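SEQUENCE, STRUCTURE TOKENS:
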Amino acid sequence: MTTTTSELTGDLEQDDGVQPPGRRSRRGGGGGLGSYLVVRFLLIFPTIFILVTTVFFLMRSTGDPITAALGGRLPPDQLQQRIHQAGYDRPLIAQYVDYLGGLLHGDFGTTISDHRPVLEVLTTFGTATLELAVYALIVALVVGIPLGRLAARSRDKVPDAVLRVFAIFCYATPVFFAGLLLKLVFSVSLGWLPVAGRASTGTDIELQTLPHPTGIYLIDALQTGDGNAVWDVAKHAILPAVALGLLTGGIFLRLVRTNVIGTFGSGYVEAARSRGVRERRLLRKHAYRPALIPIITVIGLQIALLLAGAVLTETTFEWRGLGFQLYSYLQQRDFVAVQGIVMLLAVIVAVTNFVVDIVAALIDPRVRY
């Protein structure tokens, strides 16, 4: 009796205990998806609670926010009056309980330096940071995935060695230093791209006068129907996005390379090779797609890296987002504003990780168990 090719492939996969990632097990059936997602969703709340609590008490460890921001600039009697009006002379636990109650009602407090509601600061500048993070993530994926695939195809050859050095250079170079180098080359020396800002003065004024601005300059520029405005916004975004995106792109490059090489040695790839499947098809269909699964799971962690890098990137390029405002408020020791911005960034990271967990569980059923 002859053994068919499919039977041989099944025997290889059963003996090796390896199946292509994303293939649903006949025995598992994927029944744990609902409970997995519920558990992951419920974990968001204690994570945010711990972060809010930690940030609150760290901010208060240096004293009350009024004294930290205005101490030495106001007479003692006015300083004490401001402290009493803000309720910072009450027990710390009482302040903490009131702060949590305010958060539940959407009250993030009021900044000390410019007397603005923190929620207004978050909504005004948060879109700019979101826009920059999306651009940087696109750059990271465009750089990391194709180059990682190329490095895997050229394993232990000259292109592979060059790309590995490039990856180390990308994630080892500080964001602000990379930004300064890019500005020096493409703005100062070549004059191709703007030095700083989100748009030129004329375009900025035009976008601010829109009846329904979104705060995301590219979308707002498209609303105007002005091609020059769109190009102006795009030019201002290139250098900040590249400076921040290369940091994560180097990580993606190494991940794709490592996982593609790893899947080449798995049982189902060997079975496909034994059937005479060409190496290029093995790379594209059997090794490349499964290697992207770790990238999806790592994206959630890289969002935190992008948001942290946004502080330095926005400061370097005067990109007026949450990172730029956070740096400004830290200089002014406005801990109420700092507390609100850090909390929002923590919520974004927690929610992003939950979304990434959903995508990873749908692509690879093994994640659920």
